[in-house]
Amino acid sequence: MMCDACKVREAEVYQPHTGRKLCKQCFIEDIRQRVRKESEKIGLPKANKILLAVSGGKDSFVLADTLASFIDPSKLTAYNITEGIQGYNRKEQVQELKKFLSELGIELIEDSFRQSVGYTLDEMVQAAKVKGLNVSACTFCGGFRRKLINEAGRKVNADFVATGHNLDDEVQAIIINLIRGDLTRLIRFGDSPLKLSSRFVLRVKPLRKIYEWETTMYAYYKGYTFQEVECPYITTRPTLRAKVRELLYMLEDIKPGTLLNIIEEFDRIAENVRKSYISSMQEIKELPRCKICGEPTSYGRDICKNCELLIKAGLLYQNLPIS
Ligand code: SF4
Ligand code: ZN
Ligand code: ZN
Question: Is 174 in the pocket of ligand 1 (CB under 6 A)?
């Protein structure tokens, strides 16, 4: 069967949301074009520096490979964090990551929780357990990762921090926030997030309209061998996300294109909500800074959630404000 795009080569992939059958080259080109379109909307091609937060998984590979197809690689810097999870973080994975990034001409900055927080994730989880805290590994992991990625973005003077979240991740997050009735978070999840602190580097998600099966296929076609071992803490994740994920797959199966429709409709609504939210605020008030680490924290808080977690886990005793 011929490819519906070039009509020359044999088709290999069926794209349910467009109803097209594509050859390998046209499939790769389709993904690159869609990532480019989303990136142009955000203004990425005009940026002087973009920090790519890469985990070594397939999505981070697709993020780097697609962006490097239309952005000068010297404007891209990758940043990877080793969390310190026994049996999950492997040296070979970082080597593989480094190899493909250098082939693309992208520099890689390597960091770890041990180096920048002082403890591995396993140590934080263990300390929390000893103190009887009911905090999941993902809470520590997500919070510190966000903080370090933002700091790294500032250090390299990045205009944007780009992450590899795909369409499935995004729509799951939208639905979860809708269920929780968390309007602010929901708005901040949009395609032009609100910047509530001058210390935040804007986070963008160029793959937010690419299905997860498409990023898997892209990585496979490009011969990228990615981390297949699952994080041992995944089972401690809240079950709501798993349920939402299941539900969305079911809907996508019945009506292909559902996820894309949800995100496009969400962006349209978020844009309007954002405008009325901003006009009702009179001025966008800068978020306060944590009195311990100096990073932005929520309105009304003196110390950030990350520092609070370390104190509660008995891993941080110093309580002096630093400027
Ligand atoms: Fe971190 Fe949780 Fe993801 Fe594991 S599953 S890498 S602990 S966020
Ligand atoms: Zn083709
Ligand atoms: Zn702090």
Answer: no
